């Protein structure tokens, strides 16, 4: 059974930082890929970041480029999202999502705003 468990969300002031973690089980990176997706109240789901399954290059939404960094520890089956210079518009529930079809979609240099599997999400709130 594939499972994703996110952690690391919280309340932070504008300009602050958070590091999200997503621990995955029940799959291998040979078959699946994982990325980050967020959803803010009243807004469409947005793909935040993922790794290309073609060459491992990280991709980011324009809204987070230069501020967020995705990384992974394959030995721990964990991916991370370092978020710096957070702004109120970054407030959302952040999910890790992925799977086999997700992996295929990342071949084209973009991150899909959906996944075969989802974590439960972690709330990030940026407010003064």
Please tell me about this protein's structure:
This protein is mainly β and 128 residues long. It contains one helix and eleven strands, in the order βββββββββαββ. The chain has one helix at 100-105, and strands spanning 3-7, 10-12, 18-25, 33-39, 46-51, 58-60, 68-73, 78-83, 92-99, 117-118, 122-126. Strands 2, 4, 5, 6, 9, 10 and 11 form a seven-stranded mixed β-sheet that branches. The N and C termini lie far apart (40 Å). The mean pLDDT is 94.
Describe this structure in a few short sentences.
The chain is mostly beta strands and 128 residues long. It is 5% helix and 46% strand. A hairpin with a 6-residue loop joins strand 4 (33-39) and strand 5 (46-51).
Task: Choose one word for the global shape.
Answer: globular
Multimerization status: single chain
Annotation field: number of helices: 1
Uncertain stretches of 5 or more adjacent residues: none
Average per-residue pLDDT, rounded, comes to 94
Largest sheet: number of strands, sense, barrel closure: 7 strands, mixed
N-to-C span:
40 Å
- The proportion of residues in beta strands is over 45%
List how many beta strands DSSP finds. Answer: 11
SSE series: EEEEEEEEEHEE
Structural class: mainly beta
**How large, in whole angstroms, is the Cα Rg?**
13 Å
Helix amount:
under 10%
Topology (SSEs and partners):
Layout: E1 3-7, E2 10-12, E3 18-25, E4 33-39, E5 46-51, E6 58-60, E7 68-73, E8 78-83, E9 92-99, H1 100-105, E10 117-118, E11 122-126
């Amino acid at each position: 059974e594939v499972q994703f468990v996110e952690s690391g969300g919280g309340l932070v002031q504008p300009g602050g930082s958070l590091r999200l973690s997503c621990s995955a089980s029940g799959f291998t990176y040979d078959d699946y890929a994982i990325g980050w997706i967020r959803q803010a109240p009243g807004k469409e789901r947005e793909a935040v970041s993922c790794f290309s399954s073609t060459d491992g290059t990280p991709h980011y939404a324009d809204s987070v480029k230069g501020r967020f960094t995705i990384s992974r520890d394959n030995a721990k089956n964990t991916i991370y999202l370092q978020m710096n210079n957070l702004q109120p518009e970054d407030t959302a529930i952040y999910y890790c999502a992925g799977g086999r079809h997700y992996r295929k979609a990342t071949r084209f240099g973009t991150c899909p705003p959906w996944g075969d599997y989802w974590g439960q999400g972690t709330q990030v709130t940026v407010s003064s």
